[in-house]
Specification:
- By secondary structure, the protein is an alpha/beta fold.
- The chain is 45% helix and 13% strand.
- It is globular and about 90 Å long.
- The N and C termini lie far apart (134 Å).
């Protein structure tokens, strides 16, 4: 049936309108799709342009990091060992007055060039008491810190010689002072230097080989730890070990001084000086001298070393100078500081005479820590105001004296 004629125009209008609306909607959809497609294409284009730059920048950054880490791996010895620093000369003979030779302090001494196992000659001074072997005096091998020559340690050695009534062998590492520099300072090299110094003393006609002590400050403490372990491994009966403001290991010091490198240290760090491992098994008597205000090596590291020794050493002792700083503890500790060292030396020598623990493969529980490990804290009676130093060299007041001496020396010329 056909619709009425009057309604046909209306139907046509509606159909036409619907078609137009449908076309409009279709056009809108097409426009939207085309717009979105253009947007996606534009975004893809931007991303595709950025990605190569990001990759290049990342590659460049990784390359720079690799180069930096490679340099650090290769040159890290340069960051630890400082034969010369600031205005301080390398050789003792070029030091200011009072730091050139033991003779300036009227100390009887011998100067020696000691041959190491790799044919490097290292310089040393042996401060020697008359009739020392006959009088059975102790001899201390003095291992210095990481910078400067042994002349700058003469004031300290002078006090050791007189207050402890001991001979002092002052050892100068390879590349330092008057030692040969054909081999640069390194962990392996310094260990050989230490071993050579011990061989030298064991055959010296004026030294009692049964009364040998090791002393090391800062880096020198790590050197002394190595030599103590070397002696025990080879059945050499040392009387004891004394360390001052030393560290657990270089790795632990990286955590403190360069924390940003700590996550990468397993990849780049080739210097060990792991005294913590040695302390775990060292049997000989050990004295720890700690500055409670050490600004370089956290005192907690000395405490941890002491606790390790408490489990293995026949006599572990610790003395803390409450306000002692890294380089100045020996100055700030006063009379009590020297009394603690002398008391330890006497105790250790008494134990070495009455005990055979050095020659045995193991120690019984009855031998271990007969008197128990012991720690004392002293306030120090001769504290001095000293500026903080990030490098463990020598007391800052000595640096000042040395610089004054250098100035006066220039004026003399």
């Amino acid at each position: 049936r056909q619709p009425p004629k009057s309604s046909q125009p209306a139907a046509a209008f509606i159909a036409t309108s619907s078609l137009i609306m449908s076309e409009d909607i279709l056009e809108d959809d097409i426009s939207r799709i085309l717009y979105e497609s253009d947007s996606v294409s534009s975004g893809d284009s931007i991303v595709s342009r950025i990605i190569p730059y990001v990759v290049k920048c990342g590659t460049f950054a990784v390359g720079l990091l690799a180069i930096a880490l490679g340099i650090l791996y290769k040159k890290q010895d340069k960051l630890l060992y400082f034969p010369e620093i600031g205005g301080i000369p390398r050789r003792p003979g070029s030091n200011p007055r009072r730091y050139r030779s033991p003779s300036e302090h009227k100390l009887p001494f011998e100067s020696h060039m000691i041959m190491t196992s790799d044919r490097v000659k290292i310089h040393s001074w042996l401060l020697l008491h008359p009739n020392s072997k006959k009088d059975q005096l102790p001899t201390i091998i003095f291992f210095h810190g990481n910078a400067g020559n042994i002349g700058l340690r003469l004031p300290n050695a002078y006090q050791m010689y007189h207050l402890l009534n001991a001979n002092i062998l002052m050892v100068e590492y390879r590349g330092y002072g008057d030692s040969e520099s054909k081999s640069e300072p390194s962990e392996r090299g310094l260990k050989r230097d230490a071993e050579a110094s011990l061989r030298f003393l064991l055959t010296h006609p004026s030294v009692d080989p049964t009364r040998l002590f090791l002393f090391g400050r800062s880096l020198g403490g790590a050197v002394a730890f190595h030599l103590a372990a070397h002696a025990e491994k080879n059945g050499i009966p040392l009387a004891g070990l004394i360390v001052e403001n030393t560290f657990l290991s270089i790795g632990r010091m990286v955590d403190v001084l360069m924390p940003y490198l700590a996550p990468l240290k397993m990849l780049i760090l080739r210097i060990g000086w792991d005294s913590g491992v040695i302390a775990d098994g060292l049997r000989m008597p050990v004295l720890y001298l700690s500055g409670g205000a050490d600004q370089l090596v956290p005192p907690e590291q000395m405490m941890e070393l002491y606790r390790k020794s408490g489990k293995s050493s026949v006599c572990a002792r610790m003395y803390v100078v409450k306000d002692g700083t890294h380089n100045e503890t020996w100055l700030q500790g006063g009379t009590a500081y020297w009394e603690k060292i002398k008391g330890f030396i006497n105790e250790a020598m008494s134990m070495s005479r009455n005990s055979s623990f050095y020659g045995s493969a193991s120690i019984s529980d009855s031998d271990l820590n007969k008197d128990g490990s012991h720690m004392d804290v002293g306030l120090g009676t001769e504290a001095e105001n000293s500026a903080k130093s990030s490098i463990p060299i020598m007391p800052n007041n000595i640096i000042g004296m040395a610089r004054e001496g250098m100035s006066s020396k220039k004026k003399e010329h």
